[in-house]
Design brief:
GO terms for molecular function: cobalamin binding; cobalt ion binding; methionine synthase activity. The protein is of the alpha/beta class and about 200 residues long. The protein contains nine helices and five strands, in the order ααααβαβαβαβαβα. Bound molecules: 5-hydroxybenzimidazolylcobamide (HCB).
C-alpha cells in the first residue's frame, strides 16, 4: 500500500485497501499503510527525489484510500459529551492528517467540528464559542505556520476561554516540547494518539 502511494497509483492503493480491510482495522490501515506511504513521499520530496506534482498525486491517492475506509471506522458505543473543534492554521493548506484526526475522533464518539485548512484564528474562536467546545485541535505542517498554534492559544487567553478549552497540537513540525513551550495541553504524534490524549483530557 505504501509503495502504491509512493508511485501515485490510485488504483493499486484502492486494491491494497480492499485486500487489507478484511484482515486489519481501518485505523491500522490508515496509520501503517497509507500514512506510512505519505511519510515516505515526504522524505523523498525533502531529498529532492520527488517534485510537487508527484506529491499532489500521492496526496490524492492517499485521500482516496482514506475515503474508502471512512465507513469501516469502528464506531464507539458510548457517546462522549465532549465537543472538539479541529482545524489547520492560517497560511497552511495541508489537511490530510488533520482530516484523519477528525474522522478518528468522531468515530470514537466525540462531537467534532472540522473548520478545514488555512483557517484564521478568528474561525477557531468563533467555532469554539458557537459550539461550546471543550477542546481544540490545531494542526500545522510547516515550520513557517507553526506559530499559528501559539496565536490560537493567545486568542483563547484574550477571550477568557483558555480555562474551559483543552488544547491539542499536531503536525510534522510540532513536538512535545513545542506544545509545552506554547502552553498547549498536549501534543499528538498521530491520529491514534490524538484519540487517546483527547480521552485522557476530556473523559
Ligand atoms: Co507540502 N510540505 N507543501 N504539500 N507536504 C511538507 C509539509 C514539507 C515538510 C515537505 C518538505 O519540504 N520537506 C514542507 C514544509 C517545510 C516547512 O516546514 N517549512 C512542505 C511545503 C514547503 C509545501 C509548499 C509550500 C510547497 C510549495 O508550494 N512550494 C506547499 C504549501 C502551501 C501552503 O500551505 N501555503 C505544499 C503543498 C502540499 C500539497 C498541496 C502538494 C500536499 C498537501 C495536500 C493536502 O494536505 N490536502 C502536500 C503534502 C502531502 C506534503 C507532505 C509530503 C505530506 C503531508 C501529509 O499529508 N502527511 C509533507 C512532508 C511531511 O510531512 N514530512 C510536505 C501524511 C499525514 C497522514 O500526516 O503529519 O499530516 P500528518 O498528520 C498526522 C500527524 O501529524 C498528526 O496526526 C496525523 C495523522 O496521523 N496530526 C495531528 C496532524 N494534525 C493534527 C492535529 C491534531 O490536533 C492532532 C494530531
Amino acid at each position: 500500500m505504501s509503495d502504491a502511494i509512493v508511485s501515485c497509483k490510485k488504483d493499486q492503493v484502492l486494491a491494497a485497501v480492499e485486500k487489507a480491510r478484511g484482515e486489519l482495522e481501518a485505523p491500522d490501515i490508515i496509520e501503517n499503510g497509507l500514512a506510512a506511504g505519505m511519510n515516505e513521499v515526504g522524505t523523498l520530496f525533502e531529498r529532492g527525489k520527488l517534485f510537487l506534482p508527484h506529491v499532489m498525486m500521492a496526496a490524492e491517492a492517499m485521500q482516496a484510500g482514506v475515503d474508502e475506509l471512512k465507513d469501516d471506522m469502528p464506531e464507539s458505543s458510548e457517546k462522549a459529551a465532549s465537543v472538539i473543534v479541529n482545524g489547520t492554521v492560517e497560511g497552511d493548506v495541508h489537511d490530510i492528517g488533520k482530516s484523519i484526526v477528525s474522522t478518528m475522533l468522531q468515530t470514537s464518539g466525540f462531537e467534532v467540528h472540522d473548520i478545514g485548512r488555512d483557517a484564521p484564528v478568528s474561525d477557531f474562536i468563533a467555532k469554539i464559542k458557537e459550539t461550546g467546545a471543550n477542546m481544540v485541535g490545531i494542526s500545522a505542517l510547516m515550520t513557517t505556520t507553526l506559530q499559528g498554534q501559539k496565536e490560537v492559544i493567545e486568542a483563547l487567553e484574550e477571550e477568557g476561554l483558555r480555562d474551559k478549552v483543552k488544547v491539542m497540537v499536531g503536525g510534522a513540525p510540532a513536538t512535545n516540547s513545542w506544545a509545552k513551550k506554547i502552553g498547549a495541553d498536549c501534543y499528538a504524534e498521530n491520529a491514534t494518539e490524538a484519540v487517546n490524549k483527547a480521552k485522557e483530557l476530556l473523559l
